Amino acid sequence: MNNDLTKKYYTIGQVSEILDIPAPTLRYWEKRFAILRPHRNQGQQRRYTPDDIEKIRMVNYLVKERGLHIDAAIERLNTDSNSVARHAAAVNRLRDIRNTLDAMLATISPLT
After folding, report:
1. Considering only CA atoms, which of 44, 3, 46, 52 is closest in space to residue 24?
2. What are the CA-CA distances from residue 51 to residues 33, 71, 73, 100, 107 (Å)?
3. Which of 2, 31, 59, 83 has its CA at a distance of 20 to 30 angstroms from the CA of residue 91?
4. What contacts 109, CB < 8 A, 6 or more positions away?
5. Of all helices (H) and strands (E), which one includes residue 84?
6. Residue 2 has pLDDT above 70, yes or no
7. What is the DSSP letter of 66?
8. How far apart (Å, rounded) are the C-alpha atoms in residues 103 and 79?
9. Residue 20 — φ and ψ, nearest 5°?
């Protein structure tokens, strides 16, 4: 999940691939979560900014990782979104560190 978001806009397919979340789930979350409102181009295609992707990560953290129901996640974001953002970022950083350590271990394992 340690992707450098260097582009200004991403398609729903790209976001789906980056976050490993199915596109239908992203579309459903857009309907339920007021914070998820990606820009649309003239052809009405969704264009997600890096900020939109971070918001999706927060929703994913609450719904998929914490196991909250949609309504509870909405309430949590409405009352304390800063705390949710910090927790989600910390979890993502720890996951990245673990993946890096796993890769390092796999690299040195054949040597021992």
Report:
1. 46
2. 15, 22, 19, 25, 34
3. 31
4. none
5. helix 70-108
6. no
7. S
8. 38
9. 55, 45
Q: How far is CA 87 from CA 39, 54, 59, in A?
A: 26, 12, 12
Q: Where are the alpha helices (DSSP H) in 20-69?
A: 23-32, 50-60
Question: pLDDT tens digits for 81-98?
Answer: 777 777 777 877 888 888
Q: How far apart are CA 88 and CA 112, in angstroms?
A: 36
Per-residue pLDDT tens for 21-48? 999 999 999 999 988 999 888 888 999 9
Answer for the pair 49, 59: CB distance below 8 angstroms, yes or no.
no
Q: pTM value?
A: 0.71
